[in-house]
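To close the section, here is one more complete example, presented without commentary so you can practise reading it yourself. The ligand is magnesium ion.
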Amino acid sequence: MPAQIPTPLAILRRRVLSLVSPNALLPMTCILGCTIAVSIWLFYFDRAEQEKTVARQAAITSSENIALIVATNLEEVLGRGKLYARIAASDGLAMQATAMHLNPQLVGDSAYVRAAVFDGAGALLYSSARQAREPGLQPLLARALGQPRAAPAMSIGHPAADGSHPWRLPVLVRLDGDGGGMPGYYGAMVDLGYFLGSYRNVDLGPDGRIEIVHQDGAPLAIMQGGILLPASGQASAPLAAGSAIAAREVLADIPIRVAVIQDPALVMGQLDARHQSYFLRAGAYSLLILVVTIGISAGLWQQQQLHRAVATSEQEKQRLIAQLEQEKTRALALASQDHLTGLANRRMFQEMASAELKRARRSRNLYALLFFDLDRFKVINDTLGHGVGDQLLKAVAARLRGAVREYDLVARLGGDEFVVLLSEVPSEEFVAQLAGKLVQGLSAVYHDLDGHDVVTSPSVGIALYPRDGQHLDALLLHADQAMYSVKARGRGFFSFYDASLNASSALHSELAARFRQAIHDDEFCLHFQPKLTLDTLQIVGLEALIRWQHPDHGLIFPGDFIPLAEEQDFIVPLGRWIIDAVCRQLAQWRADGVPLAPVAINVSARQLRDERLTADFIGALAQHGIAPGLIEIEITESSLIEDAELAQRNLDGLAAAGIRMALDDFGTGFSGLSRLKQFPINTVKIDRSFIRDIRNDTNDAVIVASTISLAHNLGLTVVAEGVETKDQLVHLKAAGCDQVQGFYLQRPVGAAQIAPLLHKKSLTLQPT
Ligand code: C2E
Ligand code: MG
Ligand code: MG
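Output:
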């Protein structure tokens, strides 16, 4: 197959899958956890910083607003002084009576506590306090008198240095005499304490302050924490210093400025509680993420370890299965060859010849089975010794192999029996000619076998496919019979099978003709053979085996009529009878109070291809009220190979109905256990031919042991069939077999004899 180029989508998919694999998940989880934790802290610091900036900005803005308001109000208050000055100028300073209304307190202006008017030379014309001197205004007046006219009209002094009136601010306005008024000076004392008192409720914190500062830098009045402080001795806070939150406002045309200062520690302090809660929350979230990350990582790590362990054990299991398969294949290969001659042995021949005949069925060609038996071989063996006998067998094998075509099958069945299967022969005459040549060839002297010249001749029986049989068993039987007829008539030649002369063939026809009648007359009956656990010999099931109680021929065993029933297409109705009979028997036992055990029913290949099989089982179970768990079916490997789809459907249907399945006669086919995985098989029954020689034949012992291991690996139960001796039982126990069945434990018997065993539930072996 050409290598496929992966599409970009497939590559992407693989990458994504590799990313989400448990191996990648662990570091991804750690990275994700750390990223989230770091993000939380970054977010926390960023937000705290932002809030500080906003709070600071808000405090600055509020300071600016307050400064602006205070400055505007102060401007307005001091502006009123200019107004009073203008009134004084227009009234004429000489008119003292009129000047009375220059007293601001009289007009209800509480900010102005005193007023005075001076003439152009500085002489006091009017004093609201009715004093001869105004010492508080004198320094201002003296400075103003010396100033040119271009200087600002309003000048501001400092509160009295003696601290008698700490917030009284001397204010002097020059009267220029323009527009008809008199020139001179209007002086007043403005009560900054009164002015600032109205801002008492502005909350700037205990250290926050509003300062009114002279242009020359001297503080005039300070309000801190709602309390007026005397200006003298108080230093004005540096406005732009460091982190101070401050705003200042300069009054227009008046040498005063207003400053509002807030304590940054107080502004930021208000955020502290909130930031502390942010900090705690970020800490708690980080801790939570840490715990979750550690938890998930621990889980993933555990999962990773588990995955690794599973993968390792799966690899180990696969390796073991492969090794066992290999051993089994090797053992089977060894077991399929005849060691002496190198030809195929009986088992191999059966396998290959069956396959060949399957092909023959499709090709409709003529095939011939030649059965050879060496005349007087026993005598040669006994008189000249086994060495010569073995050499003779080898030489016969070589001559046989050399005389037939390469693709014809040649095998030694055992002893001095050989078979040849000639494939696709053109005619019966061709077979006769070849058989004649073979008889001649094998009859020629065998020189120098261990120093002896040996003469023997073969007796050859020939059966033709399809005339003398459709199946290998029938062909072998008939070729064997033909060979015996040769021996009976004097050895050393060949003979074709003659059906008309064959008694058993006559019997077969008779049996075949009677099948339907036999069912009708209830001539079939079931025997049961228990299956036992190997360790405790408890009965875990029964196998139902059919018998035919023939009125003329007595008890006939299934080997004599089941192949016939298959050939004659009678197996399906017979099978139905068996299914019904088993269910009926189970119901009967139940009614009699006998403890029930599951019963296995043999199902032939032809039945497996019957579309009604599943329905037959389900119907019979329902009719007799039997649980599906009480029924098991036994099928052979070969029945799974032909038309596997139909068989699979039936098997799946039966499995779905709850019926268990056993693979019968395992080892006689070559399918291998792992190939059978697709079928719903629960149990494997090792064929009795392997059990027979388990003590003597190491190949068989290896096959049995490896089959048991393999089957266990696949989760199957192993039953050994045909256990006839204690030795076999011991050997099977050592090999780890689960269950046994065989004459040594219990021969198949009728239902009546099984009932007491079921009551007892287990077998006790007689000491041997
Ligand atoms: P199987 O299913 O392998 O049945 C086991 C056969 O081995 C039985 O022969 C049983 O009597 C025989 N057996 C049990 N233990 C021993 C032992 O220790 N030594 C020896 N030598 N043989 C033992 P049976 O009853 O003659 O049946 C032969 C075959 O006929 C069965 O082989 C099965 O394939 C077929 N068969 C039997 N009953 C039925 C049936 O109801 N339906 C179908 N389709 N086939 C059946
Ligand atoms: Mg069976
Ligand atoms: Mg069997």
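Once you have examined the tokens, check your reading against these statements. The first helix runs from residue 8 to 19. The CA atoms of residues 238 and 326 lie 98 Å apart.
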